[in-house]
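pls design
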């Protein structure tokens, strides 16, 4: 085989590998978030956190016992969703929104200066498209109308609209726990972060 033929084969092989790498990277970037969020959605809606499924458009707050003793609670419930990368600073509140039948209202209580956040994640690409909390909206009580794709309507008086690019949304809330003795107070506040249809408010 001549040197010219060897270089031609190497060039062809290199081109094929470059195209395969580019295509593989594109498919990974495009499909991976969907795969991850499909799994997370099933884990929340179907299995919950060892205490049964969590219906869509509701929020579930991490139990005080799970926060205090994550490893022991995991073995008791058989669920590790809340204990992966255990967070020892903030209580977690999670839920999955389906906005295809209409908006939902997020109510947050007065946190009296305590750090908290509620993030909204688009399941189609994994981007966080909105936040409610200390750094963005302050710590006073408030009501937020979360609307889905193509929603047209009137935002009720006193509410702030959060427009989602997708009808399927992951919600993750966090409330700061100052100390072990503060856990019941933080838990009580986390439980007051709630979702409801607009007509219920």
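designed seq:
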């Amino acid at each position: 085989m001549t040197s010219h033929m060897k270089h031609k084969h190497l060039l062809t092989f290199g081109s094929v590998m470059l195209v395969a790498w580019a295509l593989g990277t594109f498919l990974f970037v495009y499909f991976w978030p969907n795969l991850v969020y499909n799994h997370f959605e099933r884990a929340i809606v179907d299995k919950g956190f060892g205490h049964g499924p969590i219906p869509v458009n509701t929020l579930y707050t991490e139990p005080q016992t799970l926060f205090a003793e994550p490893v022991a609670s995991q073995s008791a419930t058989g669920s590790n969703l809340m204990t992966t990368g255990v967070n020892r600073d903030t209580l977690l509140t999670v839920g999955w929104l389906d906005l295809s039948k209409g908006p939902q209202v997020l109510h947050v209580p007065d946190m009296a200066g305590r750090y908290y956040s509620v993030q909204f994640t688009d399941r189609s690409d994994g981007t966080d498209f909105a936040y409610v909390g200390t750094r963005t909206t302050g710590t006073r009580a408030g009501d937020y109308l979360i609307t889905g794709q193509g929603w047209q309507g009137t935002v009720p008086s006193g509410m702030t609209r959060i427009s989602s690019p997708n009808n399927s949304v992951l919600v993750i809330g966090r409330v700061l726990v100052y100390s072990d003795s503060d856990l019941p107070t933080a838990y009580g506040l986390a439980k007051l972060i709630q979702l409801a249809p607009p007509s219920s408010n």
